[in-house]
Amino acid sequence: MPIRRLDPTTINRIAAGEVIERPAAAVKELVENALDAGARRIGVTIEGGGIGRIEVTDDGHGIPEAELPLAIERHATSKLTDEALVRIATLGFRGEALPSIGAAGRLTVTSRPAGQDSAARIVVDGGAVREVEPVAGPVGTCVTVEDLFHATPARRKFLRSAGAEAGSCADAVRHLALAAPAVGFSLTIDGAASFDLPPQDRRERVAAIYGRADAEKLLEIEAVREEVALRGFISPASLTRAAARHQHMVVNGRPVRDPLLRMALRLAYRERIPAGRHPLAALWLEIPAEMLDVNVHPAKAELRFAAPDAVRSLMIGAVQRALATPADLAAAPSVS
Ligand code: ADP
Ligand code: MG
């Protein structure tokens, strides 16, 4: 067969395989877009494990009608200028999420910027784009994804049960809600409200996500070295879980599952907790953008640090200092 260029639909389906591994990845991309749009309130609805339907509604700045066709085009983004790849301030920048989702399922984007009289809608199904049409709608954006992976059946086969996929979607939304506590978040799964959180500070958001009983036991940590700051809440060695589900790391506002940060946390607790147990931790790391490469992973979950040892030792030091102050001593009423 001669060498030939792939058509855009095929290219988008290939990208979809990397960017949208499972429904939770689509949820994450859509909520990140809402956060990038400056939303104050974000509503997420999941049906049938996110394979049936995902809906993300926001009150952000919207997409002008004339730009809707570009929003779903590959490598089209309003967030990155060609020179800016060294200092990425937005959660998105690759312009890949919407075209990837639209290649794998049926994507509908309905949006209305504040200055526009009515909303407009664009639909992409399995890579085929329908005309933009005017519709009624509030200011902001609503993105729905239906029948995810119907156009990529190989991927569909690797999904777990609807219940397990819905659980992963909920985990993704919780992580994002921790990353942006000042934004109101609601999550509805198969018609049942999971949570509906007003704008909160970090401590209140952690309590809402982890449950008040656990949150009250958490130790606050803070460590600042030069321009790098780590703040958040960790559990005392007496409070652990069998799974690492309650470990949420946020780097420059970005929810991440970074191996270096996880390993540093594990090292900090080493010998204090039994093997197979995991501490709870909600940690926010602020680091100058030029010390960080976020462009190493298609789903942007992993990072590369310019000074990994400094980050690792900041984390280990901060956690070990907090663990060395017995929580029950600190919390006990002083008897004189
Ligand atoms: P990226 O986020 O990397 O730019 P996406 O494919 O996720 O790429 O989105 C493409 C573009 O569509 C964004 O750059 C943005 O301009 C627009 N967009 C997507 N979702 C929203 C939203 N919820 N509110 C406003 N604009 C959006
Ligand atoms: Mg995006």
TrEMBL record:
One of its GO terms (molecular function) is ATP hydrolysis activity. Keywords: DNA damage, DNA repair. The keyword Nuclease does not apply. GO terms for biological process: mismatch repair. GO terms for cellular component: mismatch repair complex. It comes from the Bacteria. Residues 206-324 form the DNA mismatch repair protein S5 domain. This protein is involved in the repair of mismatches in DNA. It is required for dam-dependent methyl-directed DNA mismatch repair. May act as a 'molecular matchmaker', a protein that promotes the formation of a stable complex between two or more DNA-binding proteins in an ATP-dependent manner without itself being part of a final effector complex. Belongs to the DNA mismatch repair MutL/HexB family. This is DNA mismatch repair protein MutL. The lineage of its organism: Bacteria, Pseudomonadati, Pseudomonadota, Alphaproteobacteria, Acetobacterales. The gene is mutL. The chain holds residues 1 to 336 of 582 of the full protein.
